[in-house]
Amino acid sequence: MPITQQSEMEVYESFLKEQLVPVACLVDEEGFYPESIMRGLGKLGAFQFSKLNEKEALLKRLKLIEMSAKYCVSTSFLIWCHTTSISFIINSNNSYLKEKLLPLMENGQLLGGTGLSNAMKYYAGMEDIRLNAKKVEGGYSINGVAPFVSNLGPGHWFGVIAQVNKEQRIFAMINCDLPEIKMKEHKDFTGMNGTRSYTCRFNDVFIPNEYIISDSADQFIPKIRQSFVLSQAGMGLGLVQACIDNMLKVVDKQNKTNQFIGISPSEILEQLYALQQKAYLLSENFTKNNFISSVQVRLEAAELALKTAEIAFLYQGAAGYYRKSDCMRRLREALFIAIVTPAIKHLKRILMENNVTSC
Ligand SMILES: Cc1cc2nc3c(=O)[nH]c(=O)nc-3n(C[C@H](O)[C@H](O)[C@H](O)COP(=O)(O)OP(=O)(O)OC[C@H]3O[C@@H](n4cnc5c(N)ncnc54)[C@H](O)[C@@H]3O)c2cc1C
Q1: Which of 123, 148, 150, 193 to mutate to test the pocket of ligand 1 (most atoms within 8 A of CB)?
Q2: Which domain holds residue 17?
Q3: Which of 36, 54, 97, 166 is most buried, most CB within 10 Å of its CB?
Q4: CA 33 – ligand 1 centroid, Å
Q5: Domain for residue 125, yes or no?
Q6: CATH for 41
Q7: Which residue among 192, 217, 242 closes a domain?
């Protein structure tokens, strides 16, 4: 009997409760990479998207990212990285990658990431492209740097955009094992340390035609950018729910003094439900023309996450001021959601330039 999406999510959630909850602090602070959890989710079918239609795939991805963020935003971000790299292949016309790579990525045997933050900023008019590509026999040669790419390691893959000339940029999948790529891990973040985030330096890296997602990244980007942005909102939604749960634990503390902070868990819960409905509706009614609405939801999720993490901290008081407290981790995670590409400043720029006022 086919399992419904609801029961499918329940299976993933009980797996995460058992496997992820005990190690969430280690992931955030100590740099523990939750590899077995990522591979385990793959085995359970969490990354199977190619048999779903676009709307079903986006909704499943959003809910998976949201649900995991309740326990650990680092792992939720890793799931976003991996599922985003899967979306690159699914949306391409590359039959080689679809046959050879996609099934292994969908079952978690191979893991992937996305090195697109510089390109996303390029398309928003914020900076120049930092990877350059030269057409050579059988493919392209790439030089330059991708300063932050997460969910990498031996055997992993990630997507990048490199500039051939002013008119042409290519989109390629890159294998981390290529010897010409020099990878240096970032180990001293304030949180999110188990995300296996690297600076990747490309020195004449040959990329065969088989690994090219598109010879025109400019035309390909509109196919993936909306789900790229909307699925990230899941990190904010899950984090807000976790912060509300923390507030509820101490709501009556000190003769109900927390009510004088001026906002109750139920008020935030209302805002969360409203935003959740917007995000789900956008996924269910997915069209590639809904980019601006997705940018708004992503921005609202980042702002609600920042606000709620701070309020949950105020509710907790000094107990939350310990470095290892859950409230402190949630603050670090909320700050990450606010600055990861597209960051709040980037999202606001897009909205302003499209004459949309942000919330
Ligand atoms: C924990 C963590 C994980 C991340 N994972 C990813 C990921 O998987 N994929 C991804 O694409 N981005 C990732 N990023 C990067 C993130 O999305 C932002 O792009 C990054 O935080 C910088 O954004 P900013 O706007 O603050 O730019 P700024 O920090 O102000 O930097 C401006 C630009 O300078 C360049 N730059 C900065 N540092 C370097 C450097 N060391 N070498 C060369 N150029 C540099 C970059 O192009 C950057 O966009 C991650 C960041 C963090 C903190």
Answers
A1: 148
A2: 5-106
A3: 97
A4: 20
A5: yes
A6: 1.10.540.10
A7: 217
**Number of C-beta neighbours around residue 266 at 10 A:** 11
Which residues have C-beta atoms less than 6 Å from ligand 1? 81, 113-118, 121, 127, 130, 145, 147-150, 189, 192, 195, 197, 199, 339-341, 343
> For the residues of 205-225, what is the DSSP string, one character each?
EEEEGGGEEES-HHHHHHHHH
Per-residue pLDDT of the chain (359 residues; tens, 9 = 90+): 455 555 899 999 999 999 999 999 999 999 999 999 999 999 999 999 999 999 999 999 999 999 999 999 999 999 999 999 999 999 999 999 999 999 999 999 999 999 999 999 999 999 999 999 999 999 999 999 999 999 999 999 999 999 999 999 999 999 999 999 999 999 889 999 999 999 999 999 999 999 999 999 999 999 999 999 999 999 999 999 999 999 999 999 999 999 999 999 999 999 999 999 999 999 998 887 789 999 999 999 999 999 999 999 999 999 999 989 999 999 999 999 999 999 999 999 999 999 887 65
- The residues, ordered by sequence, that sit 6+ positions from 103 with a Cβ below 8 Å of its Cβ are none
Query: How many CA atoms lie within 13 Å of 175's alpha carbon, on the beta-carbon side?
Result: 13
Q: In sequence order, what are the beta bridge partners of 207?
A: 140
C-alpha 73 to ligand 1 mean position (Å):
18
